[in-house]
Amino acid sequence: MQPYKRSVRVGDLIKEEVADIIMNKVKHKSLGFITVTGANVSDDLRSATIYVSVLKTEEGDRTVSKLNALGPFIKGELAKRLTMRFVPSLRFKIDEAIKYGMKIDKLFDDIKSGKAIQGDDEDLF
Q1: Among 19, 3, 28, residue whose Cα is nearest residue 95
Q2: What own/partner pairs with CB < 8 Å and gap ≥ 24 does 84-91 have?
Q3: What are 35-69's pLDDT values in tens digits?
Q4: Separation between Cα atoms, residue 21 and residue 26, nearest integer Å
Q5: Can you name the CATH fold of 6-94?
Q6: Global confidence as pTM
Q7: Domain spans of the chain, in order of start
């Protein structure tokens, strides 16, 4: 028995392959520095959400829209590498977990330094 679901295993494989395709096959200088941080694949393996982080956070939306426009090309390259009957359709999103983690780190630093926390807790979650 496998330790976790097939969709999770396929997601891990897609994450690595998409990262390699973006690094080696996509020739857009305007994309900048991108890191593929995760991939969620639906249980029926028909769609996948690829999470990316961008070095320059102000260019995140533009980068994601370019990656979504390149989705058919990336899917075609992915089809050459995977031995699956269906290759999932790809949708790219910015990974907000990194931004959230940085915010939590800042709050811990503020608590450690004795600064009062400004604002209410509602904007954290």
Answers
A1: 19
A2: 84/10, 84/45, 86/45, 86/46, 88/10, 88/14, 88/41, 88/42, 88/45, 88/46, 88/47, 88/48, 89/46, 89/47, 89/48, 90/18, 90/47, 90/48, 90/50, 91/47, 91/48, 91/49, 91/50
A3: 999 999 999 999 999 999 888 777 888 889 999 99
A4: 7
A5: GMP Synthetase; Chain A, domain 3 (3.30.300)
A6: 0.77
A7: 6-94, 96-125
